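Supplementary Note 3. Input sequence used for the single-chain structure prediction.
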Amino acid sequence: MKSILHKANTRGHANHGWLNSHHTFSFANYRNPQRMNFGVLRVLNDDVVAPGKGFGTHPHDNMEIISIPLEGDLEHKDSMGNTTVIRKGDVQVMSAGTGIYHSEYNKNQDQEVHFLQIWMFPNQQNVEPRYDQITLANSVSKNTLQQVLSPNADDAGVWVHQNAWFHIGEFEPGYELNYVLKQTENGVYTFVLEGAVNINKQLLNKRDGYGVWDTNQIAIKAHSQCRILMMEVPMELTI
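The predicted structure, written as discrete structure tokens, is reproduced below.
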């Protein structure tokens, strides 16, 4: 088994006033050759957008882009004709493919919006752009991993052009379970949303990230009440 630890306070940071962003991997003006990606996982940004502010219309291509709101309401508009609002409990995906333009704004004038912006390299180039979003069930039980993303359109969660699976779990202190990888050539990057958790006996706190690969399962034990995002992704880019 191989692993890599990214403590929260080692992330790149940019505060533009309207946007306060922490970068797990190199992004924009943050350049760290040791932190370019984890397999096909290219961007993991922890973004806070000021009331009424946001990202103006800009292009993307050949990237799978996932947004997960943590607090507040994020308004999305794109060149495919979609105008939506995503909120805490939603998961949004865009397959940029041959090219799209989109904008993202904090819909509210009186509160910040906080969301994760995640990019993955796809396993197919120049696909037809697409958009999807889901709202997670409010009745999801604690001490379970809920699948929110997969490669399969008929499976739980949104789907992407990549052999990747994302799960979100909320656990009570002391709860233990094992995560079995879908594909042994994949790795799993765990990002702690709240609380503290042990992944293969490595203690992680809020906003820490921990990547594990060359293994077929991962041991999870909640150190405190916690909420985590687990991202299983290929470790090699193949197109």
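The longest strand covers residues 41-49. The two ends are 26 Å apart (CA to CA).
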